[in-house]
Amino acid sequence: MTVVVLLGAPGSGKGTQAPIVARHLGVPILASGDLLRAAVSAGTQLGRDADRFMSRGQLVPDETIVRVFLDRLERADARGGAVLDGFPRTRVQAEALDRDLTAAGRRVERSIYIDVPTEDLISRMANRRICTANGHVYNLASNPPLRSGVCDIDGSEIIQRPDDQEATVRARMTEQIPPLLEVVDHYRRAGNLRTVDGRDPIDVVSGGVIAALEGLPSDSSSGVGRVG
Ligand code: AMP
To answer: Which domains does the chain have, with CATH numbers?
Structure first.
């Protein structure tokens, strides 16, 4: 049972590194943004409520995301562990996660903070694209798809998410970085935090991320997917 939390501001490369961590450990990725976007697409009450915040670059209220995310974490495929991508994003969420895991005799074994200065993040986001089928992440400057507009992995169309446009991105940074730094501090105090410089090329960052997993059980033979 290995729970790893990946921390980083929007555009830090977290979504690119998550599959590498998941493959290394042989556990699924649980991405809070994907869970919420699935609810928005499905048109559920949760999706309608969440969309009001997401479209403005604001965080969805803690109460809502904690309930949805912890339910997801309790599903069978995450019993052996999971990589948490995008959750927790506030100190309240981090504390709720700790309580939930402690009650189940589990804990966050490692948190990895991919650290990138804010202005670098804003310019990167302008180039970020995702695939429509599974949310595979590309960057037109540093990690383009082999064929323009088409996902290398599943062949679906690649698009810019509406919440990746610049005005929304700036709002997101202002809103999301202060609570993120509180979460980083939470795990630093817990003693499980490793920080990786996210300005390096992707493979160097990946090397740092894998080094940060040292000491955790790994299972490179397992198949792994991005699951909502
Ligand atoms: P992401 O794909 O992780 O960048 O998430 C997209 C949007 O979903 C964010 O800008 C937030 O509005 C919302 N969101 C995702 N995860 C969380 C979370 N843990 N807490 C609050 N809001 C979240």
So the answer is: 2-117+176-222 (3.40.50.300)
